[in-house]
UniProtKB/TrEMBL annotation:
Residues 17-333 form the RCC1-like domain. PANTHER family: BTK-BINDING PROTEIN-RELATED. InterPro entries: RCC1-like_dom, RCC1/BLIP-II, Reg_chr_condens, Signaling_Regulatory_Domain. This is Secretion-regulating guanine nucleotide exchange factor. Residues 313-333 have a biased composition (Polar residues). Keywords: Repeat. SUPFAM superfamilies: RCC1/BLIP-II. It comes from Pteropus alecto. It holds the Pfam family WD40_RLD. RCC repeats lie at residues 15-67, 68-119, 120-171, 231-283. Residues 311-343 are annotated as: Disordered. PROSITE patterns: RCC1_2, RCC1_3.
Length: 343
């Protein structure tokens, strides 16, 4: 969570953290494993007004404070909480092995975690079944955060998907690793040789971005995206729900989403859910696109027929909703971020 204190907070209003939703593994940090339908306030494991980021994975959650402390809870069968054991944790607990090492950002994949320190180093823990930890010769799982040695340049942004991860460096390069999407890529791109970053178990430079400088990366279950310093948005990977604004089922190389989709404005921020994307432009306009059958886009599909087709999950291009390109949500123009995880 990244935001500036509001006037009310400056005047002394008390901040508080609330959680609700699925809770099968205790990922809400409320001390139990029952699903929660209405917001419940969390105990003050840290000063709520000092929370910088909140993010979640397949069954685990992480909080980073302004002071760089990392708190985690939830599913931990592969050591994704980085606590040195594999027991689930029902309350937000400090990652003691990182005390004295201020954290800038955390990205939670399905069963692994990527951690960015304030000095630009990247750590990882959890499942490594698909090379998603970026440590090619490491064990199948790691219970404590370990450095990804192959990243020798300072990193400024990290992201984690279902079974892949990526980073942007200070010089604007993008590196990706994790083999979870390789089989889908081969199946959906017959006859093509996939770039090396789809089959790498260590950070591999994403080709196709040589003429741009990335400042931010995000990931969904099967896709990746980056924003450049020129306000351009590039996307690649699975396009099952048209979250890449393309007709192709899979984009093996980064492809720019043309500016006209964003009313010819520069993109200044992007967020990714599991199968949809949200972008904000320089004048504050907010655009959404991708999967929409649970209301993720904040707008209705074109018709009931489109809704039915999306629910059926067909992968045939002719059966996908036709209005899956970025569309503006006027009610959110000028909105500010209150959390960095869009699900």
């Amino acid at each position: 969570m990244e935001r500036e204190a509001s006037a009310a907070e400056a005047a002394g209003a008390e901040a508080a953290l609330f959680a609700w939703g699925a809770n099968s593994y205790g990922q809400l940090g409320l001390g139990h494993k029952e699903d929660v339908l209405l917001p419940q306030q969390l105990s003050d494991f840290c000063e709520p007004g000092r929370v910088r980021r909140i993010t979640g994975g397949g069954g685990h959650s992480a909080v980073v404070t302004d002071g760089g402390s990392l708190f985690v809870c939830g599913l931990n069968k592969d050591g994704q909480l980085g606590l040195g054991h594999t027991e689930d944790v029902l309350y937000f607990t400090p990652c003691k092995s990182l005390l004295g090492c201020p954290i800038q950002q955390v990205a939670c994949g399905w069963d692994f975690t990527i951690i960015l320190t304030e000095n630009g180093q990247v750590l990882s823990c959890g499942s490594n079944s698909f090379g998603q930890l970026g440590v090619p010769h490491g064990p199948r799982r790691c219970m404590a955060p370990q450095a990804i040695e192959f990243l020798r340049e300072k990193v400024v942004s990290i992201a984690a998907g279902l079974r892949h991860a990526l980073v942007a460096t200070a010089s604007g390069l993008v590196f990706q690793w994790g083999t979870g999407l390789a089989s889908s890529g081969r199946r959906l791109c017959p006859g093509q040789i996939l770039p090396l970053f789809w089959t790498a178990k260590e950070p591999s430079r994403v080709t196709g971005l040589e003429n741009s400088k990335a400042v931010c990366v995000v990931a969904g279950a099967g896709h990746s995206a980056s924003v450049t310093d020129a306000g351009e948005l590039y996307v690649w990977g699975s396009n099952k729900h048209r979250q890449l604004a393309s007709q192709a089922a899979f984009l093996p190389m980064p492809q720019k989403i043309e500016a006209h989709y964003f009313q010819n404005e520069k993109v200044t921020a992007v967020w990714s859910g599991w199968t949809h994307l949200v972008a904000q432009t320089e004048t504050g306009k907010v655009f959404t696109w991708g999967r929409a059958d649970y209301g993720q886009l904040g707008r209705k599909l074109e018709s009931c027929e489109d809704w039915t087709r999306e629910k059926q999950g067909s992968s045939l291009p002719c059966s996908r909703p036709q209005k899956s390109t970025p569309s503006s949500l006027q009610c959110l123009t000028g909105a500010t971020e209150v959390g960095n995880d869009v699900t």
